[in-house]
Amino acid sequence: MKKTRRIAAVVLSLVMIIGLSVTASAAEPDNETLINAVQAQLNAKQTVTFTNAAELSRLVQIGYSYRQPNGPISITKGTLTTKSWFTTTRKTVYVVCLSGTDLAFNQTTGIATDLLVGFEQNNLYLRNVRNAILDAVPKGANLVIAGHSLGGMVAQQTAADSTIKSKYNVLNTVTFGSPLISGLTREGTVKRLGDTRDVVPALSVSTFLAPIWQIAGLNRENGGYGATQIVEAHCESYQRAAVWGAYDVTGAKNGNAKLTLDFATTVFYASPVIVTY
Hints:
By secondary structure, the chain is of the alpha/beta class. The chain has one domain (30-269). Helix content is 38%, strand content 22%. It has 11 helices and 9 strands. The protein has helices at 2-26, 31-43, 53-61, 111-118, 124-136, 150-160, 162-167, 206-209, 211-216, 230-235, 241-244; strands at residues 47-50, 73-83, 88-98, 142-148, 169-176, 189-195, 218-221, 258-262, 267-269. The longest helix is centred in the N-terminal third of the chain and has 25 residues, at 2-26.
């Protein structure tokens, strides 16, 4: 009996060791590693294909000033591919990415803009995004807009902007950790993604004016963050394929859309406090 117990104990220990090894090897790369991989592709001007929302979120993150000084707005030409049972559709698109709150010098991504957008007011970040699109994107083109936090709010404002809607076709807007904005006037399909520990998706006037839409319009996933990890949930969850890999590049869960992006075409735009054009 004792020999049997010793054998069982050894087997259990081996199983635990193997299990820990498998868990460690299956662990996701950290947040910076995930973003750096896309940054390297961008720097090398590669053509890449994104198949899920987490990959798109990593491109959005490159707009933050600690990663590069060129601005929170990026525009990249690519192809959006979707499949149905019998057909495959490919559309040339311009992907507009907007990073969020960032206390950078002479940049309209500060707290004042958060408040303006949260109350659905006009703001300089929106004006700069509009100007960047008008400068980089030919009229009549298709747009996919993505943004994190404040950038996701401005992305929704952009999809609702009368000038943008009159000159372009807004196909999809995907937001990461952003509340409902401009719900009644947005063009195209809008998907808001929010970690269950992220409180930012509730921080807009829509929480009071349209609470059901604010809550029901948010696609929630649990990234495994604790009660004290609100910042991590807001800043890191959306880059993780383990959490958002089931969502395609349009933000649709279990969708099949993918984006092929030509990073040789990517341009960054600043969002200055003083707009001269």
